[in-house]
Amino acid sequence: MARVTLEHITKRYEDVTAVDDMNVEIRDGEFVCLVGPSGCGKSTTMEIVAGLTTPTEGTVFIGDADVTKLPPKDRGVAMVFQNIALFPHMNVWENISFGLRLRKFDTDEIDRRVEHAADIVQLEGMLERMPDEMSGGQRQRVAIARAIVRNPDVFLMDEPLANLDAKLRVHMRTELQRLHKELDTTIIYVTHDQAEAMTMSDRIAVINAGRLQQIDPPLICYNEPANLFVAGFIGSPSMNFVEGDLTRDGLETPNFSVEFDPSQVPNATVGDRLTLGIRPEDVFLEHRAGNLETTTDPIDAVTDVLEPMGDEIFVYLLLDESAERSMEDALATPNQLLMSVSPDTEIHEDERTNVVLDRSKVHLFDTDTGEALVHGIDDLPGPTAGADTGAGTAGTETRATGSGTDTER
Ligand code: ADP
User: Fold this and answer.
1) Structural domain tally of the chain?
2) How far is it, in rounded angstroms, from Cα 258 to Cα 262?
């Protein structure tokens, strides 16, 4: 087991900065997924930890040792890749033991390690099989066993399940979690699949354009995304985003307003452009929102397309029927909102309806910087809180509201 620390890691190729000033500390025994879109620098980061790529700047520590200049074989790491390169002419035992035999390990020790690894990945009884007699999942388990016999301090896995079919991938996720529990080893796992990252990791490191966006437990990334990128990347279907202007009464978007005291929003000033984020499961039909503590005012909508998923129904809502529809990026236009409702909901296409947002689940982001400002506006007072002086002028309201808070504005 070992801690892995990246300090100011940057990797530049001629015209690309693949990794940009990455600072991460992965704890001893932790399972961390590096997740992000294709080309964001996940594999390069992994290769830098493995020693297959030298960083342009920065330092890599494994435990307390600076390994930046050490060759891969001296780092105590074992890698499992997407493309499983098993030797086709060797059986499972020979494939798993290959590295140990090359390093002239004692025969008894080789047998002991291979048996132990085969037991962990449940390949007992298959040691005589040839790779072409095995399924994709079994071959991947051989590759993992080959890594296990090396007793690494750190496992590095680069999209190891990418080539498996969907059902097997879900099964292997559970197996990898079991493996982690059993081996109690640090695992760094690269994937572009946020669902894979959500289900397996202790923490997720979300990367975009070579930069670390957030590293937190999956549910923190989901419930308190650090910025618009993380909010949009984690969760499927994606969070709805609606841009608006911060006014003295809250947020005004083209089709609806949400009331709150703007002075309670950190790092924002009336007149700023903010983006409201709300997940599909936090949008409710007004008549079914009775259990929620605080909701927004009802928003007029027309149901457009329904997608019954079995355990829920996705409902695409149009907030402004006359506006143009964008099928390309449906969730990024202010006229559309995706709602998820339970499958027993009486709902039809092209129906006029009212929806509300759960105020405790409304996120606000700075549109320009993307930075998250607030997660949940349920405890932000309404715009007129404390302003009930009867005068009702803008000046009175601003002063009265401001006096009840400890913010600067
Ligand atoms: P990911 O694993 O997230 O898909 P990579 O780490 O493979 O991303 O790549 C990050 C960026 O660095 C990409 O733009 C990629 O084209 C570039 N890159 C990776 N390796 C090289 C290389 N050897 N030479 C030049 N550019 C590279």
Assistant:
1) 2
2) 11
The answer, yes or no, to whether any atom of ligand 1 lies below 6 A from the CB of 13, is yes
Token pair in block for residue 130: 């040839």
Clarify whether residues 178 and 249 are in a common domain: no
Chosen domain end from 231, 252, 279? 231
Residue 82 phi, psi dihedral angles, 5° rounding: -65, -45
Contact 226, 371 (CB under 8 A): yes
Both 161 and 248 in one domain: the answer is: no
Q: Which residue puts its alpha carbon closest to atom 20 of ligand 1?
A: 44
Q: Which amino acid is at 276?
A: L
Residues 121-180: tens digit of each pLDDT: 888 889 999 999 998 888 888 998 998 898 899 999 998 888 778 887 888 888 889 889
> What is the 298 CA–ligand 1 centroid distance (Å)?
47
For 98-126, the pLDDT digits (tens) are 999 998 999 999 999 999 999 888 888 89
**Nearest protein Cα to ligand 1, atom 7:** 43
CB 346 within 8 A of CB 303: no
Query: In this structure, which residue's CA is closest to atom 22 in ligand 1?
Result: 13
What is the spatial distance between Cα 238 and Cα 331, in angstroms, rounded to a whole number? 8
pLDDT digits (tens, 9 = 90+) for 292-336: 889 999 999 999 999 999 999 999 999 986 666 655 554 556 688
Q: What spacing in Å lies between the alpha carbon of 9 and ligand 1's midpoint?
A: 15
Encoded tokens for 339 = 């709602």
Quote the domain boundaries for residue 249.
Answer: 238-375
Q: Is the CB of 291 under 6 A from ligand 1?
A: no
